[in-house]
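Extended Data, panel c. Modelled sequence:
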Amino acid sequence: MDLIETAGRWTAAWRDRDPAAVADAVAEFADPDTPEPVGGPDLVAHVEAVLTRFPDLVLDFAAPADAGDTAVLTWTLTATHRAAYLGVPGIGGTATVVGADVLTVVDGEVRVRRHFDRVALAASLGQSAKFVPSRDDLREYGVSARTPSGKTAHPGVLAFTYLDFRDDVEGPEIDLLSTEVVKSLRPSRGFLGFASFEMGGRKYTLTAFDRPESLRAVHGKPHQRALRKFFRGDLCTGAYTSVWTLDRASVHVRCADCGEMVDVSAGRTCSCGTTPTAGPLF
């Protein structure tokens, strides 16, 4: 078998972004996104999924390094990110990463192992990696985010929700919808802040307002679009919504001068005469 000729057909198929030609060129393929090697129709489906995420994908291949029964193709990927990948929503960023395809002949068939750094690819999209355990005997871990307003008023009401999502495609879609809702809330007078938390297959949101009447700001067009997707568009497998009014609240701040802890919510002043200032709650 002419491995270099196969390498030529392999690189041409990727340059043409042709899933069928990719699958015809080799017997088996594996990369960091395949749980096990794939070939034939499964390889076609895998390439189609790659091109859904990165429809204008360009792999700039270097000339193959030939070692008899093994050939190595190094490449640079450049692509526009258009669909969820690694939990990152596709919002049009440019992905770049370098990698290598190792082609080997086994029992007269060509097998390919693609190597690249998914963390580096995510970093090119402006994502930073945080490594945490999924769970231990006591806790389940996840990620969180907040949208501050800069306002120091205490919330009079909290809107607390959670959404159950299916997978790494649906999760980022929820994130995009949530972002649009929060953008619509930020200009409203009573909005104080927003926080979100994700653990497992559930996304939680906590939104603070100064008083119950300010909740009307939630009913803008972005929120209406999200509701339509939930009730009519098969988005999510379940949800919880609630509104919580304030029972009590206190804020303590340590004095930077003497170290005394002061209840600033009660208007107290530290014994050294300094009045510590609390920052925004969210």
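The mean pLDDT is 92. This feature is highlighted in the accompanying rendering.
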